[in-house]
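From the shared-data thread, chain only:
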Amino acid sequence: MSHSSVGSPRRLSRTRGRPSWQLAAHVASFALAIYAFSRIFAGGHVENYLAWFVGAALLHDLVLLPVYSALDRAFGSSLARAGSRQRFVNHVRVPALISGLLMLVYFPLILGLSSRTYTNATGHHPSDYLRNWLLITAAVFMLSGGIWVLRRIRGR
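Structure, as tokens:
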């Protein structure tokens, strides 16, 4: 084996079983994470970051993961009993994930819990966040449903 073929992208792709662009994507995401951590440590608020990070991890692992896993299992088993295809589940999962993430990030504004704080900090009133979240949620579910219908029509 020649020395030049040992580190070639083609050989790396064959040995790992994955395309070589995935390695580049992993290296880029690690570089971004290192940069983010360096900015956090340079800012001097490491304790705040660690408290939020640990709190978010615990909230996710102990509360959110069991809840959305149970909902997903219940939804999937009800579709299996009804004889529906598994592909339909993903057309519900993706918009639910987008809606849930938006709710998780913006829940104080959506639920009106921080309107005074937000108004004092920005000068804007957060009155439209609930309406906008509902509209975005409806739009992503309708878009996903439309894609599902088009796939069903094309599949016939």
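The radius of gyration is 22 Å.
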